[in-house]
Amino acid sequence: SGIGSKLVEIFAKHNTSLFLVARRINKLEELKRKLAQFDSKIFIYQCDVSNKSQVADTFAQIKKETPFIDIAILNAGVGHNMNVENFDSNLAEEIFSVNVLGMIYWIEQLLPDYFENKNGILAGVSSLADNRGYSGSGFYCASKAAATIYLDGLRVELKNYGVKVITIKPGFVKTPMTDKNKFKMPFLMTVEKAGKIIFNGIQKEKSVIQFPLPTVIGSKLAGALPTFIYERFASKIKTN
């Protein structure tokens, strides 16, 4: 749903073969029917990306249909608003399993083919929320920081193998996930616009795709603030 669904729609207009993976197979079936008007081939697979064995099994099924994945967009993500009064480590396990380990499990499957072909693009979705531990979203921010840092290191390691690594860092985009937020979301962007920015960035093989510009600038400033100044401002912001 959200950004992933919009990206599929954009790619489907460009005569591609698309291999869609999600937990909710009914959502994939709806999307496939919606895009039947285009010439692209669409294959759908039910898989929980946080389950390592399911990822391996699903990739094996995909390999029966295609010898190589040119572009892997690792977009699965979850987030929960939580404060210290309703602290729940189960939410941390879910968030890190999907946002970080889910990405790593897929990369583990893809790398052997990428090494052999000395080609391929890994595009991982992080967030501009990776720069600080924002109150009420600590688990989410920490997971995105981990994803960003991991992709940064991977980009350097894979450069000599001809494999491109792209880090996608959106600000607030109107999706089912952000619809749950009860706080103000400055520069909230439509999923249509976000999808176009990501698609164009992938075409240009940018190392980092980050948007919108005001939020990019704001996140960099917030990340550069001394801790005592940041805490003073952050303590006045309502997050739930």
In short:
The chain is an alpha/beta fold. It is built from eight helices and six strands; from the N terminus they run H-E-H-E-H-E-H-E-H-E-H-E-H-H. The radius of gyration is 18 Å and the shape is globular.
Fold topology:
Elements: H1 3-12, E1 17-22, H2 25-34, E2 41-46, H3 52-63, E3 71-74, H4 89-117, E4 121-125, H5 138-158, E5 164-170, H6 191-203, E6 208-211, H7 213-224, H8 227-234
Parallel strand pairs: 1-2, 3-4, 4-5, 5-6
Written description of the protein model:
There is one protein chain. Helices cover 48% and strands 13% of the residues. It has helices at 3-12, 25-34, 52-63, 89-117, 138-158, 191-203, 213-224, 227-234, and strands spanning 17-22, 41-46, 71-74, 121-125, 164-170, 208-211. α4 packs parallel to α5. α5 links the parallel β4 (121-125) and β5. It contains 8 helices and 6 strands. With 240 residues, it is α/β, with parallel strands linked by helices. The mean pLDDT is 93. The protein has a 4-stranded parallel β-sheet with strand order 3-4-5-6, with helices on both faces. The chain has a two-stranded parallel ribbon with strand order 1-2.
Main pleated sheet: 4 strands, parallel
Q: Give the percentage of residues in beta strands.
A: 5-15%
Instruction: Give the oligomer, counting copies of the same chain as homo and different chains as hetero.
Output: single chain
Specify Rg, calculated over alpha carbons: 18 Å
What is the strand arrangement across the widest sheet?
3-4-5-6
Global geometry: globular
Total count of helical runs of at least 4 residues:
8
- Secondary structure class reads alpha/beta
In round numbers, the mean pLDDT is 93
How many E-type strands?
6
H/E element sequence: HEHEHEHEHEHEHH
Low-confidence stretches: none
Q: What is the CA–CA distance across the termini?
A: 23 Å
Question: Share of helix among residues?
Answer: 40-55%
